[in-house]
Amino acid sequence: MNLDFSQIVPSIPFILKGIWVTLQIVSVSLIFGFILGTILSIFKIGKLAILRWFADAYTSIFRGTPLILQLFLIYFATPQLTGIDISAYAAAVLTFGLNSAAYVSEIIRAGIQAVDKGQREAAEALGVPYRPMLINIILPQAIKNILPALVNEFITLTKESAIISTIGVLDIMRRAQIVSAERYIAFEPLMFAAILYYIMVMALTLLGRLLERRMRRSD
Amino acid sequence: MIKIRNLYKSFGKLEVLKDISTDIAKGDVVAIIGPSGSGKSTFLRCLNLLEVPTSGQVWIGEDEITNPKINIMKVRQKIGMVFQHFHLFPHMDTLGNITYAPMKVKGLKEAEAKQKAMELLKKVGLEDKANEYPVRLSGGQKQRVAIARALAMEPEIMLFDEPTSALDPEMVKEVLDVMKSLAQSGMTMAIVTHEMGFAREVADRVFFLEEGRLLEDTPPVEFFSNPKTERAKAFLDKIL
Ligand SMILES: Nc1ncnc2c1ncn2[C@@H]1O[C@H](COP(=O)(O)OP(=O)(O)O)[C@@H](O)[C@H]1O
Ligand SMILES: [Mg+2]
């Protein structure tokens, strides 16, 4: 075994730039996923059966098929079906956004349904209409369950984002592979990428704990 | 004030209320008693449509609430409800709990809502708890805040579903006292309760429910000394 991390030193800045790419794609996807997921969760708890059905089917499909397959479908099949070329970056954000919307909608739905149903009844008995009830009574209590779970989704997304390297997005993973190919070494660049992912995940985990503690204090 | 005709309610195959017809006049205080599972809560909840009757009609004042076209939110403002487990809003302090609906639903200004809330808190003996959050209140205090919260909407009718059943024994009296003075002020009240002493003293009528039927509607003196039905007799023998 001969390991020589000095070999990758010149490539470190190149790999580090991937942090920005990864973070950017993950954050944009999560924001997109959050907005869409919120809408889907409103469908899920709403009264209209057709919207409930749609949101449930949506979630079921995105959770029931491999993420990498969703990514390939959007990246490779979109041009074939629509004639429109889609950039790797856009395909990545779109896939991860659509995918995380499925998970986020479940997180929000579960968070809302975990709130004691007496809260809703108390509001209804006072004559409070649906929207203010949801916004002023239910959501402030649900957010305690939702926020920590959203941070977990952020973490999952950060790790799984490595598969966008397969369509050529220059994220941490892809950059490590390029360095690996250029210098005919595998362990050092991949190890370096692993450390970067790990640090990012740990930072998010810490953020999650802080949030959770904050939420508990207001109980 | 409340008119009920041929009220039925089923949950799936389970028929919980069977053919209930009665009237409750303005200022009446009705104690609803009966074995557990006899449909007392469901009956009460049919009066503000927290449960939708399967068939039959219910009027609150002039409004037939069983008519699907009715604006139930509007009618609910006239009916206060107090629950066994309080259901205070945990993320709001006492004042927040009491002022929320008057401000949101009736559009009261904050200053006005607060002033009214303070008057109500005085009535239930809790002025000093105006800025406490529910977690910091005892069960009896929570229930008194819940009563104040319902009264803040200036309802014409108050519904109570076992308001003292979740309380430690030493806190029951403080809540019953508040209810008693409310009854004396002329409020129309329907109270599901196991407090027989309270029912005897405060109620004008006793409804005895069993297996979803309204078996008795009798003044308390008569009900407790000389119930009309065997079932009520058996029930009273068991609990008294
Ligand atoms: N939401 C519901 N779904 C199904 N069954 C219910 C529901 N609410 C009450 N029941 C049933 O209806 C019957 C009467 O319940 P309830 O009105 O709560 O009785 P009580 O208040 O007299 O104890 C019980 O058998 C109970 O299990
Ligand atoms: Mg009950």
Please provide a written account of the structure:
The complex is a heterodimer of chains A (219) and B (240). Chain A has helices at 12-45, 49-64, 67-82, 88-113, 117-125, 130-160, 172-183, 187-217. The radius of gyration of chain A is 21 Å and the shape is flat. Chain A contains eight helices and no strands. With 219 residues, chain A is mainly alpha-helical. Chain B has 240 residues and is an alpha/beta fold. Chain B has helices spanning 40-46, 72-76, 94-106, 110-123, 139-151, 169-184, 196-202, 220-225, 230-239; strands at 2-11, 14-24, 29-33, 55-60, 63-64, 79-82, 157-161, 188-192, 205-210, 213-218. In chain B, the strands form two sheets. In chain B, strands 6-7-8-3-9-10 form a six-stranded mixed sheet, sandwiched between helices. In chain B, strands 2-1-4-5 form a four-stranded antiparallel sheet, covered by helices on one side. In chain B, helix 5 packs parallel to helix 6 (169-184). Chain B is globular and about 55 Å long. The chains are: A mainly alpha (219), B alpha/beta (240). Chain A binds chain B through residues 116, 118-119, 121-129, 132, 136-137, 140-141, 218-219, and chain B through 48, 50, 73-74, 76-77, 79-81, 83, 85, 87-91, 100-101, 104-105, 135, 149-150, 153.
List the helices and strands and how they pair.
The complex is a heterodimer of chains A (219) and B (240).
Chain A: H1 12-45, H2 49-64, H3 67-82, H4 88-113, H5 117-125, H6 130-160, H7 172-183, H8 187-217
Chain B: E1 2-11, E2 14-24, E3 29-33, H1 40-46, E4 55-60, E5 63-64, H2 72-76, E6 79-82, H3 94-106, H4 110-123, H5 139-151, E7 157-161, H6 169-184, E8 188-192, H7 196-202, E9 205-210, E10 213-218, H8 220-225, H9 230-239
Parallel strand pairs in B: 3-8, 3-9, 6-7, 7-8
Antiparallel strand pairs in B: 1-2, 1-4, 4-5, 9-10
Helix pairs in contact in B: 3-4, 3-5, 4-5, 5-6
Bound molecules: adenosine-5'-diphosphate (ADP) and magnesium ion.
Residues 40-41, 162 of chain B line the site of magnesium ion.
